[in-house]
């Protein structure tokens, strides 16, 4: 859990979003390289809005990829770095037919499908067993971004799939374009 609820900040940061006329990318600058995620509001507008708002509020800056499973995914967005925290609120699922393949951005959650908050993951390989059970809402923008994500997926891990050496999201920024 987090002691602060970010919902007001997220709502303020996203009040002028224009999913009809604009495209939104999320640039993630990590301690192991940079990658860009292209958001897909056509399939999950609430999840895209949430990630944009959290990024614009600075929520993700300095957080870790706290769970990495080689051949599966990299997961981050927990303010405690343990996989137990969030932004102080939850959002409803937006399951859609997007397949969980290498490079797909999806939202982590607890057993309850409507329990997502701030934790997200990026698949480093196909994970179709997650299809229609987790909300996919974007993907790596290009081959270079996928290569960085996959290289992060190869780091040494210890207990609870936690990296032996921290993988930090130094900054997470939103880029808007026509």
Radius of gyration: 15 Å
Succession of helices and strands: HEEHEEEEEHE
Tell me, briefly, the overall form.
globular
**Overall average residue pLDDT:** 97
Detailed description of the structure:
- The protein is an alpha+beta fold and 178 residues long.
- Helices cover 16% and strands 26% of the residues.
- The chain is built from 3 helices and 8 strands; from the N terminus they run αββαβββββαβ.
- It has helices at residues 7-13, 45-56, 143-152, and strands at 23-30, 33-39, 65-69, 73-76, 104-107, 120-123, 136-140, 169-177.
- It has an 8-stranded antiparallel beta sheet.
- A hairpin with a 2-residue loop joins strand 1 (23-30) and strand 2 (33-39).
- The longest helix is centred in the first third of the chain and has 12 residues, at 45-56.
- The chain is globular, with a radius of gyration of 15 Å.
- The termini are far apart.
- The model has no long low-confidence stretch (mean pLDDT 97).
Give a quick precis of the structure.
The protein is of the alpha+beta class.
Features:
alpha+beta, 178 residues, 3 helices
List the helices and strands and how they pair.
Elements: H1 7-13, E1 23-30, E2 33-39, H2 45-56, E3 65-69, E4 73-76, E5 104-107, E6 120-123, E7 136-140, H3 143-152, E8 169-177
Antiparallel strand pairs: 1-2, 1-8, 2-7, 3-4, 4-6, 5-6, 5-7
Helix pairs in contact: 1-2
């Amino acid at each position: 859990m987090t002691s602060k609820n970010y919902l007001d900040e997220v709502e303020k940061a996203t009040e002028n979003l224009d999913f009809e006329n604009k495209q939104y990318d999320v640039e993630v600058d990590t301690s192991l390289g940079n990658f860009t995620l292209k958001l897909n509001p056509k399939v999950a507008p609430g999840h895209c809005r949430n990630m944009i708002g959290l990024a614009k509020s600075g929520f993700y800056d300095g957080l870790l990829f706290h769970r990495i499973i080689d051949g599966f995914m990299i997961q981050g967005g927990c303010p405690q770095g343990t996989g137990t925290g969030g932004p102080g609120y939850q959002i409803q699922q937006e399951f859609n037919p997007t397949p969980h393949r290498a490079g797909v951005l999806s939202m982590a959650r607890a057993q309850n499908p409507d329990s997502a908050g701030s934790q997200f993951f990026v698949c480093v390989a196909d994970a179709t067993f997650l299809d229609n059970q987790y909300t996919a809402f974007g993907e790596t923008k290009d081959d270079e971004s996928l290569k960085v994500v996959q290289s992060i997926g190869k780091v040494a891990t210890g207990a609870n799939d936690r990296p032996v050496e921290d993988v930090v999201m130094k900054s997470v920024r939103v880029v808007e374009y026509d």
